[in-house]
Specification:
By secondary structure, this protein is mainly alpha-helical. It has eleven helices and no strands. The protein has a domain of about 200 residues. The protein is about 70% helix and about 0% strand.
Length: about 300
């Protein structure tokens, strides 16, 4: 039973990062109806920026709050660049019929990996965690404090974004843009700004994910690929376009992965994640908390 509970907690902690990146997928989807397949690479670049700012050896050795701020600004800029070169050139398009965004965002992700590989090299880099102990103990449930930090930050940010998007004027403008961009524009909402805002927020979330993962796994050019793909699955499982769904989906996928390893089927953990996706979509095609998009014609 102890090992089972440990697996649950382990899954929740790893699910925190999936929830963050799933939030990024959902926010972009809300305003554009497209999936940003470069989101995992935004996380990877954020992790590299944080490493080079904070690492005492091989980096600038800045205090972690300053390094984190620089990483978040850098990741936000990367998010805006992704929009500028992969979505904006498509002009006014219907994402349901023009699937060019699949190729453009995927191309940007591959280019980002190659650029980082050539600039920083393929050697993985490691950085010390911000939080090392709780109450003089290095672990709780045999899980490192840096992993609990992932869960705490993921849940808090999901709740903050849920309040922001449900209770504020900015959130109402975002929902209006998501519901009907043309009508929202006629009502005076700057839909172009809302799209850029979604990519900027997604970039910041990617930067936070990179900061949280940098001490847990080695920083390397491929670190964002599987994380991004798994987070996309989490977003769909929870309900793409829902902030609460992103949190639920991220934690669910994290627990599924962890329980697969607990059951001695670690090599099948990725397969279990996609099996969960299939089962959820069969039972509820919109995801756990997703809602069907109704259009009047």
């Amino acid at each position: 039973m102890t090992r089972f509970l440990q697996a649950i907690v382990q899954g929740l902690t790893s699910g925190g990062v999936y929830a963050l990146i799933a939030l990024a997928f959902s926010i972009i989807y809300m305003t554009t109806r497209v999936i940003n397949f470069a989101q995992g690479e935004v996380l990877m670049i954020g992790a590299y920026i944080y490493f080079y700012m904070a690492a005492p050896k091989g980096g600038a050795g800045l205090a972690w709050p300053i390094a984190l701020f620089v990483a978040l600004v850098g990741a936000m800029i990367v998010g805006l660049v992704v929009h500028a070169i992969s979505i904006a050139p498509l002009g006014k398009f219907d994402p349901n019929t023009n699937i060019g965004w699949i190729l453009t965002t995927l191309s940007v992700s591959l280019i980002a990996v190659e650029v980082v590989r050539n600039l920083a090299g393929e050697q993985a880099k490691r950085i010390d965690p911000v939080v090392k102990t709780f109450g003089g103990k290095s672990t709780i449930f045999s899980i490192e404090p840096k992993q609990y930090l992932i869960l705490i930050v993921g849940v808090v940010l999901a709740l903050v974004l849920e309040v922001l998007h449900s209770k504020t004027q900015l959130g109402r403008a975002l929902r209006a843009t998501a519901h009907d961009k043309a009508t929202a524009s006629l009502m005076g909402i700057n839909t172009g700004f809302m799209v850029r805002y979604s990519f900027a927020i997604a970039g910041i979330l990617g930067g936070i994910g990179g900061w949280l993962l940098a001490p847990v796994i080695f920083v390397d050019p491929n670190m964002g690929t599987l994380v991004g793909l798994t987070a996309f699955v989490a977003a769909v499982v929870g309900g793409i376009g829902s902030t609460r769904g992103a949190l639920v989906g991220g934690l669910t996928i994290g627990v599924v992965e962890s329980l697969a390893k607990w059951a001695g089927a670690g090599e099948w953990s990725t397969a279990m994640v996609f099996l969960t996706l299939i089962l959820i979509l069969v039972l509820k095609p919109t995801g756990i908390l997703g809602e069907a998009l109704i259009e009047k014609v």
